[in-house]
Structure formats: structure tokens, C-alpha cells
Amino acid sequence: MLPASVIAEFETIVGTDGLIVERSQLQTYECDGLTAIRTVPSAVVLPRTAGQVQKIVRLCSLHTIPFVARGAGTGLSGGALPAAEGIVISFARMTSILSLDLPNQRITVQPGVINSHVTRHVSPYGYFYAPDPSSQSVCTIGGNVAENSGGAHCLKYGFTTTHVLGLEIVTPTGDLMHIGAPSLDAPGYDLTAVFVGSEGTLGVATAVTLRIVKKPEVVKVLLAAFDSITAAGQTVSDIIAASILPSAMEIMDRLSIVSAEAAVHPNYPQCEALLLVELDGPSIEAELQTQQVHDLCRANGAWEVRLAQSEHERMLIWKGRKAAFAAAGRLAPNYIVQDGVIPRTRLPEVLEEIGRMAQTVDLRVSNVFHAGDGNLHPIVLYDASIPGQEHIAVDLSLRILRLCVDLGGSITGEHGVGKEKQEAMGYMFSEPDLDTMQRVRCAFDPQNIANPDKLFPRPRLCGEKTGPYTPHPLEKAGVAEFF
Amino acid sequence: MLPASVIAEFETIVGTDGLIVERSQLQTYECDGLTAIRTVPSAVVLPRTAGQVQKIVRLCSLHTIPFVARGAGTGLSGGALPAAEGIVISFARMTSILSLDLPNQRITVQPGVINSHVTRHVSPYGYFYAPDPSSQSVCTIGGNVAENSGGAHCLKYGFTTTHVLGLEIVTPTGDLMHIGAPSLDAPGYDLTAVFVGSEGTLGVATAVTLRIVKKPEVVKVLLAAFDSITAAGQTVSDIIAASILPSAMEIMDRLSIVSAEAAVHPNYPQCEALLLVELDGPSIEAELQTQQVHDLCRANGAWEVRLAQSEHERMLIWKGRKAAFAAAGRLAPNYIVQDGVIPRTRLPEVLEEIGRMAQTVDLRVSNVFHAGDGNLHPIVLYDASIPGQEHIAVDLSLRILRLCVDLGGSITGEHGVGKEKQEAMGYMFSEPDLDTMQRVRCAFDPQNIANPDKLFPRPRLCGEKTGPYTPHPLEKAGVAEFF
Question: Which residues of B touch A175 (CB under 8 A)?
């Protein structure tokens, strides 16, 4: 609980209608998309301006109050989970488009703006905003920045970090900073790149300048049905080797095809592996590449290759893919969506191993895969009403992550580390790696109040000595060979 | 001077043939491409392995010896300038290609590998390395990483930072770290992006994993002659608005055309503004876009539009452009190549203002311009034998930089800050901006020994308090409105 005097100061900053302190109302903010962990915050403040955010953060710094920024709360790794003694800074009232600069193809928005609203705003001028997480109709740009969100089209267009040109941020010590620059190669350190994906641990964005992209002349979507994941995976490699860069390449396995079909009836062919390829660009180029992809699918044994004949068919194909997570609910009462990265070429062996691991503990795992960039989403199906099964499912999902790392991949492709994967960071990074990151964190946040106890396996005290190299006793003898 | 015992330890690490301490030999290392400032280092060490680099840096940390890494010494901002009491770590003996991974389109090299050798190595397989600074036949990948080097083709392909997938580095405290990851969105902070372009202030790279790109099917080069810079600039805007992304777009003004012609006879049309557009990609697409660019040039009043008819013609056109700096030597005994960035759309007014400023001090300035990304290279011509003229030229070149910043641009597009533009950083960034960058620096380099006294206007002591927000006395009274 915060002292009444501090609450009163928050109220002075944001007004009575911008402050939530009632327990029943605070419960709305107890978790994000990772519902397994819940903590009710001490207060929620809803600023309207960057100036108010700065005052809020300064007050937090003055009284050492932890804070976490929150957009739509759709994150899947607990990044927006509050601290019990801390506050939530909600961006629900900072939803304005601040400026649009068409000649330079950029737009500046407040962090509470919804992802798909950016595209809606620039669409009349022939532009779109490229990163498209599945939650794009709900999630906010601020949250996308925190998590460096991806989406099916990041294969061609890149993650959020590729599209953030500049940021206005409030640092955890209450400074208002402008990072990024009008030019592509700004002098000094590239702090924009560090801030994007820092999961709220380096401060709070109050304005974001985004790159917008010209809408392609045409968009083509192909579906191909294969008898094996190996054949579908080989086709993906062949497409890339042919210098074709589709805007998206997705693979779904039989279980995810079945559940998508049951949920939204996308009329997918029933097969072992479905490959979905989207191509966009100038008509003349897309037509040619569509034919090439068609031929590569056939050459790898696809027994059906279907080109969407209308916008309706195209949307239906995507609807099935995007429904894959929710549709898992039809296969089992509960499920965990995991998010790992593997080298693209190792997909068949990874899926085989996941199948083996699942069988050993008598669970089922369905798989959807951003095949172009190696981002795998295994969906671990289970029934929480069976005693002990949830624990087994969590354990399996973590072992799948270790498998990804062991094969040269990563513990998260796009969902972030947050609260969920803190411990896994220790498996992926060495001590010096994590230590350097933590020291960067301390450079921004010496008090450890910006979304604390996230991202890293253990908090690091910023006062800890970061002095020069301390030699081993043998070195002190001056024997360089023993270094 | 370093104590004999320390010199002996360096010798133990790199061997007699890997150590330079003779004054006459050390003079080779007294400056890089910025020849105006010279300092002879105390020693030069030439390691062969990452392990040796680590031992060298640990020794430096132990004795608080400043160090700077050096590739080919072609940098233009004094980034490789040594400290008198410090050492140079030369990468002249770390020039190996470590591994090539074609399916994943990546290559890992030692930092001493020359830029163009990367392309030479992967060319037989149909790939190339995209960043192409003018010095690419000499400069090294390590230097490119330090400066985030660009080149004419960065408009389409991006700067060095876009192409560095991972790094092995030795931190200034002597830790060997691996940053970057196999996936595009690695968890944790994006330290790769911070390291690239950090100009040697965060440590030394010992291995670099680069992205390689498939060679385009065809490359087309168009030359267009205009009667005004405004018309050429408008054409550039029109090309981009038409969703065409050329691999390069360059503008040269009359003075630079004249000097290039005199130097290498590229047979340029004599005009006020020459626009050079290179298009690459699949044949079918490049043909179409070449026609579109041709039409846009004509629509903006180009009185000659010439398409290179052979590889020879294409190389000749580029030879003229790439010779622009050296050719300035034909116009005046001395010259300063400046490097600023402006919003693309403001080119005509900037060039007009530069002309006015030059006239006022009775000097001439020729201009070449990476027009697509707004990177301007004014070449200030002068005669150092005329008393006072060098000073006037330097002053003019700095005032041009201020002009770039005032118009919303930047103090450097691709040459870096180094020693040359330390003071200009204070004009471009606010105190909190610089302070945050310096704290990031301290996170890596608490002793301030990694290329010290570069990049920032004044060194910051890493021990300086970086505590929480300290309120103004009025705030202490709890009056939030006075924040």
C-alpha cells in the first residue's frame, strides 16, 4: 500500500478520474495475457500527456515506487504484471496520432494507439504499418515497442525495431529524452535499438515515430499440402535459396490444421503439413514468383497447391492460421502457447523430438511455425482438471525451449521474456552477457524501479562494483600464459 | 611511456614479431584518415587470436592503459587516433574467414578482413556483402563495425548494422562476450545494435558474423542531366513516392562533375546537377523500373537521360562518382570532406545556403549527395598556404554541420564522430541524452580506457553519482504542479 500523501500527489498529477485505487477496480490490472501469475498493484494512473508521465515517474523515483507501463495487456509473457507495492501507468488515455509526414513516410503516435489503427490512419494515402502481431486489432504500439513485436509478415518487413525511427521516452530517473534521429545512421549509441524490446525495464515511451510502408500493388496467397513436415520445410529452404522473399511463410501441422478447420472452417486440405506462402509487390514480380513457388511446392511433392482466387479466399486462409491458438481450445480444455526459435533447416528433427517428448508424458502438442524466420509456436495441450497435468505441461513446454537453445536457437521469437522466461535467460546467456545487460539496465535505472524483477534471472544491485578486471592470483604473478 | 615490465608482458602475449615499440615504426599509427590530428602511441600490439586480444585488454585494464583498435586506418573522423600513453591493437594479423554458412546466408570473419574480400569470398556462390564504403578495397570489417559504415548502396540494403548478425567481443574489463543471436529478435537488450557504431568505446570485436545477400539478376545504371539541383532533388522524391527503391541514388553538383571529369573522364554531361540512379533485382522488375525512372527524370526536365549499355559503361559512371573526393584535389590544393545529413526534401535550400555561406568567406564548396537517404558530402576547397584560410575552411565546414542539425538533420551520415566531431555532439544532443549514453559507456567501460576521449564532448567519470531523481526545492514541498 502506498501512503495517502503519495496517492494524493498522483491525484494532483492526473486528476481524480485518472487514478484507480479501489481494490475491485485494481483487479483488472492483476495480469496480462499470461494469466497464470497475478498481482494486484497499489494504484493505476492514467496520464494524458508526456509531462504527466514525467511527473509520475519522478514521484516514483523520489519514493522508490516500482512502476510498469501497460497498453492493452495482451502480452503473453507477463511483461505487464505489476508489483504489489507498485503502480501501473496505463496508456488508455494516450491514444492520439500526433503527426503524419507522408513525404518522409513516417507517423508519430502516442503509445496507447492500437496497432491496426496506424494502418487504418495511413491506408487512404496508400500506406500501411508492417508489424502485425496476431493481437493487432487490440494491442498497442507502446506494448509492441516494449516487446519488439513481430507477426507473420516480419519475414519480409522486419520486427518492430525495424520500424521505430525515434522515441520520446521518460527514463526511470525522470528525464525526458528523445532517442533515434531523422537519419538512418545517427551518431552516438543506437539507444533506440536498445529501448525497443527492453520490456519496460529502461523507461516509458511517451511518443513513437514509426516508419510506414507503401501498400504493395498485389498480394498473392498460396496453400500447399504435403505428406510430411520435412517436405514442407525443404520447400521453404528452396524458396529462399531461389532469392524469393515472400511476405509470409507459415507451416501448420496436422493437429493445428484440424483445430483451425473445426474453429473457423478455412477449408484447408487435410494433410500432414500445410505450407502457406504470401507474396506481395509489383504485379509483374508477384505473378512470376507465385509461379516459381508453385513449381517448388510441386517439386517437393505437394499434392495440392491452391492459389487464393479472391480477397475473400485470401482472408479465409489467414483466418484459419490466425485462429490456430484460440482453436487449440477445441482440442483440449487448456493449452500453453510456447514461443521458441530454431535454425530454419532443423525443423523436421525438432518436430520429431517434440513429438517424442510429448508422447513420453502422454500429452499432445500441435505446432504452427513462422517457417521463414524459424519461429516455432508449439501448443502444449492439457487438462488442468487432471491432478498434476498442468505441472507436466509447463515442464514439457520449458523442455521444448531448452531443445531450441540446444539446437542453436532462442527462448523467444516474439512473445518476450517478461516474468515467464526469466530463468530461461540463464540457460541462453552466459554470466558476462547477463551482467553487461544488467549494467546497461542500471545505466538507465539505478533504483531498479522500472518494471523490476522481469527479463533477468536475478536482479542485480546497481551499486555492485563494476570495476576493472580483477586477475586470478596466478596472473598477479605476471605470468601472462596463465590468464 | 609504458614501464618495461608491461611491455614485456605484451611481448609474452603476442611474441616479439607482434609488438612495435620503436618510435620510427610507431609513427605509422599516429593518425587515420583524419590527418589533421596526430598522436604517437606508446606501443602497437598485433594479436592473432581472440584469446590474445583478451589477454591484451586484461593487461590494459589491470594497468589502466588506454587502447584503441585499428583496422586499415581509413576512418575519416579520427576514430583510430591513439592516446600518447596508450596502445594500438592492430588487426593486421587477424584476417581469416572463420566460417561460411550458405543455407543461412551468413559468414563469420575476423575483424581484420577487408570489406571487399567478403564479397570476393562469397561471389562464386552467387552472394555479396552489401555495405560498400568508398574505401571498401582497403577498409576492414572491424572498422566498418566501429563506424557503422555506409556506402552508396545503403539506400536499399542498409548500413553495417543491418548486416551484423552477431559479434564476439572483448569488453574493456576483459570479458569475452557473444552478442547477437541466430534469430532476428533475440531476447534481452539488443547489444549488437549498440556495439555497431560505438566507435571502439565499448570494447573490441574479435569475430563478426555478417549477413550475405544474393546477387541481383541484373543491375541497371541511369544518368540524368538537369539544369538545377531542385529538379534533380524533386526527381528523387518522385522516384521514392512511386514505390521504387533504387539500390543507389546520387546527386553531383557542377563543381564535383567538373572535377570528376578532369580526374577519371567518366564522360558525364556537363550540367548543374547530375542524378545517378542504380536499379537492381529480377530482370523483369528492373526493366520496368528503369523505364519508370527514365520517365520521371524527363518529366522533371532532364535534358539527357543515359542508360549504361555495358558493364564497362556502368563501372565508368561509378568510377567518376567514387573519385569525387580525391578529384577535389584538382580544384584546390586542400579540401575538407564534410559529412552531414538533411531531410531529403530540403536539399535545394541547403545547397543554396551552403553556396551563400561559402561566398561570404570567399571559398568554393563542391557537393556530392547520397540523395536517397539525405546524406550530403560538401567538399570545402581551400589553400593551406594562404595564411588563415585553413581556419576559415574548418569554420565553414562546421557551420555547414550546424545548418544540417538546424534543419532537422545530423552531424554525420557515415564517417562517425571520433575525435573530429566531439563538440558537435553537444549541439545535436541534450544533456540527458549524452548523459544516458555515457552511462551506457560506463556499463561496458568503468575505467574509461576503451578509445577514451572520443565520441562525447567531455568525458564522464564513471564513478559520478547516477542516483534517483533529485527534486527542485519547490518540489520537495510536495507541490506537484511545480515539477
Answer: 432, 435-436
Kind and range of the H or E run holding A376:
strand A375-382
Selecting from A13, A158, A440 the residue whose C-beta is nearest the C-beta of B189 gives: A440
* Residue A472 confidence (pLDDT): 53
Task: Give the nearest partner residue to A193 out of B105, B176, B193, using CB atoms.
Answer: B193
Residue A1: the pLDDT is 80
Half-sphere exposure of B53 (CA within 13 A, CB side): 29
CB contact under 8 A, A375 and B183: yes
Q: Which of A181, A455, A480 sits opposite B13 (nearest CB)?
A: A480
CATH topology of domain A332-406: Alpha-Beta Plaits (3.30.70)
ipTM for the assembly: 0.86
- Most A CBs within 10 Å, among B160, B164, B185, to test the A interface: B185
Residue A478: pLDDT above 50?
A: no
How far apart, in Å, are the Cα atoms of B349 and each of B32, B412, B461? Answer: 33, 19, 42
Of A158, A343, A436, the CB nearest to B171: A436
Please answer yes or no on whether A189 and B177 come within 8 Å at the CB atom. no
Closest to A188 (Cβ–Cβ): which among B174, B196, B437? B437
> CA-CA distance, A336 to A399, in Å (whole number)?
13
Q: For residue B478, is pLDDT > 50?
A: no
Position A262 scores a pLDDT of 87
Domain covering A218-325 in this structure, CATH number: 3.30.70.2190
What is the least distance, in Å, from the CA of A359 to any CA of chain B? 28
Q: Is the Cβ pair B159, A408 closer than 8 Å?
A: no
Same fold, A218-325 and A332-406: yes
Name which residue leads in pLDDT, A36 or B189: B189
Residue found by looking up cell 527542485 in the block: B472
As a whole number of angstroms, the distance between CA A52 and CA B254 comes to: 52
CB atoms inside a 10 Å sphere around CB B384:
13
SS3 B42: coil
The whole-angstrom distance between B30's CA and the closest CA on chain A is 24
CATH architecture of A97-214: 2-Layer Sandwich (3.30)
Question: In Å, what is the CA distance from A296 to each residue of A225, A231, A237, A299, A305?
Answer: 12, 11, 10, 5, 10
Verify whether the Cβ–Cβ distance B425 to A188 is below 8 Å.
Answer: yes
Dihedral angle sign, alpha carbons of residues B455, B457, B463, B464: negative
Domain A4-90 classified CATH 3.50.50.60?
A: no
Predicted pLDDT of residue A466: 57
Percent of chain A scoring above 90 in pLDDT: 69
Q: Which of A472-481, B315-324, B458-467 has the lowest mean pLDDT?
A: A472-481
Residue B467 has pLDDT above 80, yes or no: no
- Residue A188 and residue B455: Cβ atoms within 8 Å? yes
Burial class (CB in 10 A: 0-12, 13-18, 19+), B116: middle
* Domain residue ranges in chain B: 4-90, 97-214, 218-325, 333-447
The enclosing H or E element of A20 equals strand A19-20
- Report the C-alpha gap between B172 and B442 in whole angstroms: 10
The architecture in CATH of the region B333-447 reads 2-Layer Sandwich (3.30)
Chain A residues with beta carbon closer than 8 angstroms to that of B182: 341, 343, 374, 408-410
Which residues make Cβ contacts (< 8 Å) with residue A374, sequence separation at least 6? Answer: A341, A342, A343, A344, A347, A409, A413, B182, B183
pLDDT number for residue A471: 62
Mutate to test the interface with A, among B469, B470, B472, B475 (most CBs of A within 10 A): B469
**pLDDT one-digit tens code per residue, B141-186:** 999 999 999 888 888 898 999 999 999 999 999 999 988 865 556 7
Decide if B184 and A158 are in contact by the 8 Å CB cutoff: yes
